[in-house]
Amino acid sequence: MKKIATLFVLTFSICRCLQAQQAHNPIIYTDVPDLSMIRVGDTYYMSSTTMHMSPGLPIMKSKDLVNWQIVSYAYDVLDDVDALNLANGQSTYGRGSWASSLRYHNGVYYVSTFAGTTNKTYIYSTRDIEKGPWKAVSFKPSLHDHSLFFDDDGRVYMLYGGGKIMLAELNADLSGLKPGAAGQVIIENASAPAGTDIGLPSEGSQLFKINGKYYLFNICWPRGGMRTVIIHRADKITGPYEGRVALQDKGVAQGGLINTPAGDWYAYLFRDFGAVGRIPYWVPVKWQDGWPVLGNNGKVPDSLDLPANKSLDPGIVASDEFSRKPGEAPLPLVWQWNHNPDNSRWSLSRRPGYLRLTTGRVDTTLLLARNTLTQRTFGPFSSGVTAIDVVNMKDGDCAGLILLQQKYGWVGVKAAGSARSVVMVSAESGSPVELQSIPLTQHTVYLKADCDFKDKADKAYFYFSLDGTSWTKIGAALQMSYTIPHFMGYRFGLFNYATKSPGGFVDFDFFRISDKVASEQ
């Protein structure tokens, strides 16, 4: 009996060890939606949506298909318009640039996107995807959820649309639609394989040519059902196309195909997962009768025969002490501004070792304030901590640490005359409400926000400290909620805005992230 028990323990340990060496879904437990991916040699590159953030259209790199790092952005500023600049009371939350299409052709990398904000389609190109520079062209109209496609005959196309899938040819220099080549319908109803009662018609087109056949991936959403992968195939790019449902499990959908140098195939997709955002899942693919068959018996597996997942830090998120050596980039790529920044109002050099945010105007709401510096929250737990020097705030200024979405929450400092108070503000109800205020009698205060995304709990908790060691909870728990008006997972943000007169400034000493929250420490 003792031998049997020993054998059981040994077998269990081996299984645990093998499981630890495998990748697990979600591959990336943070908001990385609308994926597009290529492999060049043994290196994978992936683009994603960051909408109203600047810089935008991130490029991520991996050697193993599992562990990723941000290596570039296709643009610093998408366009110079009021909505992107948070000017004249305008914003572009939930818009900006949407689903991108990443391609490699004849030694050149291309990534394209589109924006309802400007009604334009944008194409960026470079020979060095990691270092740039990127060349940009844009044209009207905005081609929704398009797939950029270089065919073997040298012609260039975009497939696009929702429900009805269209095909348009581009000029050879990609400067716009080819004159006289108006979009033609190639699939009248791409949702048809999923039935007749469709809530979200097929969109998110991604086209691939494999062994002489064209394969088109789309997502649709039957009413009362879940996000669904639809695949169509054809012998010619113009069709006719035949389609089928490729995956209906856990709502994992929208993406495309990638293969490894060893010849294994995967579908890269994502899943809506509450307040943390839309998180990537990989699904194994086998080929049968000329069709890609997704999943294990139609199911999305929890583990995959790929290298184990490592931490998202520092490839996707990272702590920052705000100290820069000569020649270093001002901001690591994990950071993005909420909309286009006013570069004259932030600095890492005016007080070395600190991020200084200076107000340049009066704002009525934090959501319209410029120069909120953000990076992703992540699951299942994430915590952000900062220290802020508030001695140079002006009457009416508010500064601190926010969890940014439409229903945001923040902990920080509010100035009233010469007095300072630590406050917690919650917009869970749809409007900001100050839930607690505590007088502050020193110049530096430490702030912390904890996120619990496990099993979609979507709870956030806020704290402050006078010494960086002993923490006091403030306000109330925030029930985080993913809202379509913002269309993005919650983000940590550092901010400073004026409500009475501009010119005040605050200095952030550091920003440190952790995957441990107070309840786990």
UniProtKB/TrEMBL annotation:
<feature type="signal peptide">
    <location>
        <begin position="1"/>
        <end position="20"/>
    </location>
</feature>
<dbReference type="InterPro" id="IPR006710">
    <property type="entry name" value="Glyco_hydro_43"/>
</dbReference>
<feature type="active site" description="Proton acceptor">
    <location>
        <position position="34"/>
    </location>
</feature>
<dbReference type="InterPro" id="IPR013320">
    <property type="entry name" value="ConA-like_dom_sf"/>
</dbReference>
<keyword id="KW-0732">Signal</keyword>
<feature type="domain" description="Beta-xylosidase C-terminal Concanavalin A-like">
    <location>
        <begin position="328"/>
        <end position="513"/>
    </location>
</feature>
<keyword id="KW-0326">Glycosidase</keyword>
<dbReference type="GO" id="GO:0004553">
    <property type="term" value="F:hydrolase activity, hydrolyzing O-glycosyl compounds"/>
</dbReference>
<feature type="active site" description="Proton donor">
    <location>
        <position position="203"/>
    </location>
</feature>
<dbReference type="Pfam" id="PF04616">
    <property type="entry name" value="Glyco_hydro_43"/>
</dbReference>
<dbReference type="InterPro" id="IPR041542">
    <property type="entry name" value="GH43_C2"/>
</dbReference>
<comment type="similarity">
    <text>Belongs to the glycosyl hydrolase 43 family.</text>
</comment>
<dbReference type="InterPro" id="IPR051795">
    <property type="entry name" value="Glycosyl_Hydrlase_43"/>
</dbReference>
<dbReference type="Pfam" id="PF17851">
    <property type="entry name" value="GH43_C2"/>
</dbReference>
<dbReference type="GO" id="GO:0005975">
    <property type="term" value="P:carbohydrate metabolic process"/>
</dbReference>
<feature type="site" description="Important for catalytic activity, responsible for pKa modulation of the active site Glu and correct orientation of both the proton donor and substrate">
    <location>
        <position position="145"/>
    </location>
</feature>
<dbReference type="InterPro" id="IPR023296">
    <property type="entry name" value="Glyco_hydro_beta-prop_sf"/>
</dbReference>
<protein>
    <submittedName>
        <fullName>Beta-xylosidase</fullName>
    </submittedName>
</protein>
<keyword id="KW-0378">Hydrolase</keyword>
